[in-house]
Predict the structure of non-specific serine/threonine protein kinase.
Amino acid sequence: MKETNSKNQQPKWKPMTAGYCCSSDDRAVFGNFSRCRPSKSDFTKNIGGGGGGGTAPLPSFRKLSFSDVSLSVGSSSARINEDLAQTFGGDLYDFQVSEMRAATQNFSSNFLLGEGGFGRVHKGYVDQSLRPGLKAQPVAVKLLDIEGLQGHREWLAEVIVLGQLRHPNLVKLIGYCCEDEERLLVYEFMPRGSLENHLFKRLSISLPWATRLKIAIGAAKGLAFLHDATKPVIYRDFKTSNILLDSDFNAKLSDFGLAKMGPEGSNTHVTTRVMGTYGYAAPEYVSTGHLTTKSDIYSFGVVLLELLTGRRAVEKSRPKNEQNLVDWTYPYLTRTRRLRCIMDPRLGGQYSVKGAKEMGLLAQKCVSLNPKDRPKIPAIIETLESLQNLRDMAITHGQWPDSANSGRNLGYYGKGRRQSGFGCKSAAVAASPRSK
């Protein structure tokens, strides 16, 4: 998460990295979590029921699971805090709003990192003066907009997912706050901000090819950890704005408010209300509401295309045939001479010709209309890692215009036109429509 204002700079702390916890051999270990509260009928039986005189003791609190996300809606903040404390113990800190106000200088605009549909995110600083043993470090404090019931559900889903899972490629949740109507989340601070900002902000320095590849691999490993959990988790919101970067450009997935438990037993999918981000959501999920891990693979393929082209998944300001990234790039992905026509011009030809081709082919498989044709995440990681040591740069292999003409030849990119001097015809590439 990137700071928007450099005023009032605080001492620099080294960000805390997310290590392994609650994991074994890179696999998530979920407890046998059951419902944290009894049914209404059970509750009635235990309180003065049966005409037997005394009052039976209240049922003990038990650990939260994904099934409890909707059950906790309407519960008091005190009850929710007791549930969470019982579930996570000392793994997560239970903060107070007043403490986070102090940590962020009263949620100062000078420390505003970002704002969106989820609410605002501020940078703050915490140390052991707040809690014994709490490491001195910068944090990102998210204040959720909980208008309606969905805001609370997403907040609780995120606490449950990140409270149970630890992995180097998942952003670390340090603590939370549930106080009256307030819902806050406290994460490790990610100094490089989001992948979205690096790819699409005009003033940002272009990400080198090797860094883009490193980010893709890291994000894929985070997704693999979720999919390979004892109880698989479907991320459901894989996109560039949710891929955060530490000081060394290591990728970490964030924002798990839409995450869902994957199908269990003989079930092939989870049926759920369609949510996510337009342009990233798999077409079969949008049309049927059927959610599988292959839905995440589709979204991953879209992000690969964004890394290749430097374009957003959907851009309404483009010519009509270029507004949807998947549809526009599809005819270009199979041949090197075509692929260079859609490569991000900010790379300046400093990318591996073979690496870009292989990534393009991989992206094409990921966004296949048939979910069964999409590769599994281990195969994706293996393919991407095999591209790291390639040094056949396009600029030195005649696959990119020379520097004297590059500015003129790359002018097509901003205007939606392709110059013939670059070997890219102004007409759209002829190709048969996408099909299963």
About this structure: The chain has a mean pLDDT of 77. The CA atoms of residues 174 and 187 lie 5 Å apart. The two ends are 38 Å apart (CA to CA).
